[in-house]
Amino acid sequence: MSRYPAGLPALFLVEMWExxxxxxxRAILVLYLVDAVETGGMxxxxxxxxxxxxxxxxxxxxxxxxxxxxxxxxxxxxxxxxVGGAVIILGHILLAISGSMAAIFxxxxxxxxxxxxxxxxxxxxxxxxLYPKEDVGGRDAGFSxxxxxxxxxxxxxxxxxxxxxxxxxxxxxxxxxxxxxxxGLLNFxxxxxxxxxxxxxRPPPKVVDAATHRRDRRVSLGITGAVVVILALLxxxxxxxxxxAAGVAQATGVLIVTVAVGFFLNIYxxxxxxxxxxxxxxxxxxxxxxxxxxxxxFEQAGSSLSIFAxxxxxxxxMGFQVPASWFQNLNPAFIILLTPLFAWFWTxxxxxxxxxxxxxxxxxxxxxxxxxxxxxxxxxxxxxxxxKVSALFLICTFFIHTCAELLLSPVGLSTFSRLAPERFxxxxxxxxxxxxxxxxxxxxxxxxxxxxxxxxxxxxxxNQLFFxxxxxxxxxxxxxxxxxxxxxxxxxxxxxxxxxxx
Length: 502
Description:
Layout (H helix, E strand, L loop, with lengths): L6 H28 L11 H17 L1 H12 L1 H21 L4 H28 L6 H33 L1 H23 L17 H27 L8 H26 L4 H24 L5 H9 L3 E2 L2 E2 L8 H22 L6 H26 L7 H29 L5 H24 L9 H31 L14
Antiparallel strand pairs: 1-2
Helix pairs in contact: 1-2, 1-5, 1-6, 1-7, 2-5, 2-9, 2-15, 3-4, 3-5, 3-15, 4-5, 4-7, 5-14, 5-15, 6-7, 6-12, 6-14, 8-9, 9-15, 10-13, 10-14, 10-15, 10-16, 12-14, 13-14, 13-16, 14-15
Keywords: Cell membrane, Membrane, Peptide transport, Protein transport, Transmembrane, Transmembrane helix, Transport
Protein name: Peptide MFS transporter
Membrane topology: Multi-pass membrane protein
């Protein structure tokens, strides 16, 4: 089996242009929200802006769950990707023409979130369809290559949309993102008639008897009802308040956790899974928690680290003032440089028979992402004196975070596409992105307490981010052997199971 099948470059390009649109807009979102109204911004307080950022980025990923469900039950992955791309284009157009009309701007954000929810899990599902289950190293390498497309789009989007937004005007940046997504969608339609023919179709349902179907339906309705009741009680009793952006962000966090638990239990109990499939579902649940912790740290790039770059970092480069949004390009640039090395290592490890548990990979990623913040502690102490800090601190942090990301994100995509039950692959890819949704939201809430006017709290914040992540990573590494032995029972990572289909 080829490490890079014919359809992979086509999906690479679609995802590259979609990520250009998303990251290009994300790079300027917080800066636009806090900019004064007189200069074209929204004039919001920093705490409100980062809370909105957290809500939006969380929504982008939480909607991947219903996006996967739509594909598994009705459309198939290919149609879901096409519709999602069209809705994203509409969203960016609304942002570009919104002017000072907040309602149109918010409608644009909603469109992008819905469209990304349809596109994101299903294009990853199509990448997984290109590989047999047993080709673990090839699949990891393929997803690493695919992930490079994500970050190539991210760096292009950050440079182009970031520059247009900060120099020409915010809505020029939003408009550039619309054009990029249109290019990606046209490429997808072209590839669908050639290298992707037959990929992304709706999976066949499993045949069950009437009694089992009625039982599963009752369980699903019961779990859904419990989720609704819990949320209603929390809002009705005032535990969750929705009168401010920060309150809505907290409410969204409770919503994500409740939905994640309900979704997992529904498939685990009412999904007619085999014993081995249930064990693998437990593995995916553990990885979900680890990923949520990781993204809550990593996604500080668009909130606290963005503000740190804008207000506390020396950005003069031989007389040129480097835009603060350009610092976010460091991560995708490092991704592009390091991905070939990581992809080579995964295939080399498989060829040599090296067994590297996915739990070890995730654990190391958590330790590294924490280490990136520990490096910023002395930088924060310098900022406390009122001096601007060297950009080298942020450069080192982004490099370490990139290494951590390559240990977790493409590996997570590969693992979820490989271990998920066949009938729920797109939904489980949505479940994977739900972890990113929760992490993005937590990142916004953590950053909401950041006071750049008096940066004395920064050393404590960065130490907190370091210790929480590093401890979680070490625990996961320590549990890797017993978890792997219990979940796989000494068998190959996945054994194809014969299921009756209609």
